[in-house]
Amino acid sequence: MDEKWDIFVEGGKLFMHRSWTGYGIYEVSFVGADGGVRIAEGVVESDESRYRSRSDEFDCVMVELLIRSLLLGEAATELRTRLWPRSR
Fold first, then answer.
1. Do 58 and 52 touch, CB atoms closer than 8 A?
2. Strands ordered across the beta sheet of 36-44
3. SS3 state at 1
4. CA angle, 75 then 37 then 72, to 5°
5. How far apart are alpha carbons 52 and 58 in whole angstroms?
6. By the 8 A CB rule, do 13 and 2 touch?
7. What global pTM score does this model have?
8. Choice between 12 and 88, residue whose per-residue pLDDT is larger
9. Which residue has the higher pLDDT, 84 or 74?
10. Where are the domains of the chain?
11. Is 1 or 15 the better-scoring residue by pLDDT?
């Protein structure tokens, strides 16, 4: 995965922007759950000149991968394998 992302929180939402274009690709909001948080809603850029989504499933896994690998510092190997099965 090309890990060139700017990820930040503003107004209680998590934003994930591509670092070299500045385009916002993902926006995620959370709710409290079982002593932690869970994703309540996610929004994906729909302008194809900015981002061409492969599928809803791909975007869901990508959001989880970005959170786990870049924010939490986990390897998240199983998520990488789900996105790019032939490269592993």
1. no
2. 5-10, 13-18, 24-33, 36-44
3. coil
4. 20
5. 11
6. no
7. 0.86
8. 12
9. 74
10. 5-87
11. 15
Q: 6 is written with which tokens?
A: 């700017």
Angle at 35 between CA 41 and CA 65, to 5 degrees: 45
The H or E element spanning position 7 is: strand 5-10
Residue 33, pLDDT score: 92
Q: Which amino acid is at 53?
A: S
DSSP per-residue string spanning 13-56: EEEEEETTT--EEEEEEEEEETTEEEEEEEEE---TTT-----H
Q: Each residue of 52-73: pLDDT tens digit?
A: 999 999 999 999 999 999 999 9
2 three-state secondary structure: coil
Specify the residue for token string 């107004």: 11
pLDDT in tens, 2-16: 569 999 999 989 999
Contact call for residues 44 and 51 (beta carbons, < 8 A): yes
